[in-house]
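Give me C-alpha cells for this 511-residue protein.
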Amino acid sequence: MMRRIILINGFIALLLVLCSYAQDTVAERMKRVEQELAPAVQIKDKASWTIQERMKYYQVQGISIAVINNFEIEWAKGYGIHNTKSGDPVAETTLFQVASITKPVTAAVALMLVDRGKLELNRDVNEYLKSWKVPENEFTQNEKVTVERLLSHSAGLTVSGFRGYAEGEQVPTILQVLDGKPPANNAPIRVDKKPGSGFRYSGGGYTVLQLLLEDVTGQPLSELMNEMIFKPAGMNNSTISLPQSGPLADQASLAFMEDGTAQKGYRFLPGGSGCCELWTTPTDLARFAIAIQKALRGDTNTVFSATMAKAMVTPHNSDNRGLGFFLRRFGAALYFSHDGGNPGFSSTLIAHADKGYGVVVTSNTNGSFGLITEIIMSAAKVYNWEGLQPEYYKYVEDLIKQFHQIKKEKPDEPKIAERSINQLGYQMLTSGKKKDAIQIFKMNVEFYPQSANCYDSLAEAYETSGNIKAALENYRKAIAMLDKFNEINKSFESNRETRIDKIRNLEKKLH
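Here you go.
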C-alpha cells in the first residue's frame, strides 16, 4: 500500500513538473515573440527589437495579440492603453474595430447559407435582392453579378472602401450608401466592368452582399453573425453594431490618429456594416480562424463545414484570392489572411491552412502595419512557421535583382504585387532606411507605371528625404495617372484633392 502511495505521489510530482515545464515553454515563447520583432525584409543588418521599443518608435498607443498554435490559442496579451482619459490598459477583452477583416466573417455567413441551400454561388444576385437591385447596364448584358463574384471581388462593382462617419455625423442607410445619396459620402455602387473579368477590391460589393443576406433571411446581418458564428464559435466579445452602453461599449478602445488625438471609432451603417465595422478581440478572431482550420482538417464538431472552409481558401479568379480571404503562398505553404484599416485602427489575421498555427494582431492607432508586420515576423520565427520567415539581403540592389527575376519568371507572384512592394517600401521608410525605400518605390513604378499610388508613394519617400523637387515631380505624375488611366486608379481618386493641396504647399516651400 505504501509503495502504491509513493508511486502515485511520484506520478503526481512528475505531472506537476511536466505542467510547469509546459507553462514555462509557453511563457518563454511569448517572451521571445515580445523581444524578437523584425521586419519581413532586412537590408545589411539583422535587426531585433522589443515590442515596447517599436510601439514607442511607431507611436502606437495600444496593441493586442493572440497566437494560435496546434489548433488552439496558446496565449493572448494586450500592450499599452486603449483610453488616454482613464489610462485603462489594453486587455485580452479590449475590443478593436478590425475594418475589412469583417469581410471574411460576412463571407462565412453567406457560405453557411449556401451550405443550407438558401443561396447559390453562381446565381444572379438580383434574383435574391428584394429592396434594391443592381442596376443593369451594358456590362451586365451577358455576365451577371453573383454571390461568388461578390465574395471574390470580381463582380465589377465600384467603391473600393468607405471613409465612414465620425461621432456627430449622420449615418446613412444601406440604400443611401448603395445609391450614393446624402448623407452617404461615397459614389453610387455600380457595375462599370464586366462581372467575372478580373479582380477589383470592392467594399461596395460586400455592401450589396449584406443587403442580399438580409433580404433572403429577413434578419439584420448583426443577428445572423451572432446566431451563426459568434455564439457557436465562442466569440463573446464580437459585434458589428457596437452598443452605446454596457460591457462591450466599455471594453471598446478609442481610435488614435497620427497627431495623437483620440476619438470614438467611425460608424458605417446604423445596424453595423458587413464590409468594415466588426468590433472584436484578437482572441475572438483567433477562434474564428481555428474553426476554419479545424474544418479544413476534417473535424466534424466545428462551426463550419469542410466544404465551406475549402471554398474560403480555394483560389477564385486569381491564385491569391479565396472567398472572403486573401491567400498567401510561401513555397508549398498556404496561409489565409486579411488586413483591416479604418480611421484609428489597424489589424491583421494570418493563419496556416493546414498546420494549425497563426496570429491575430490589432492596434488602436492609425497606420500601425509596420509594427504589425514586425510582430507577425517575430511569431513566424519563434514558432518556425513553414515558408514565412524574415528575408535578409546584403544590399538593396540584391533584393531588386531578385524581384526582377521573379517578375520575369512568375509575374503573378504575390510577393511582387504592387501592394506588397508598396508595403515593403513603407517598411523601409518607417525604419529610417530612406535611400533603400526610394529604390523600392522606384522599382514599383517600373513594374506598375500606370499606377497613381506608386508615384504617390515614391513622392512621399522623396518628400520625407527632403528632396522637394523630386517629390513634386512624382506627385504631379500621380495626378496625371489618375487622368490618363482612370480605370486602374479608381481607388486612388479620393486622394486627388489631398494631393493637389500637397503639391501647392510643396511649391510654396520650394520657392
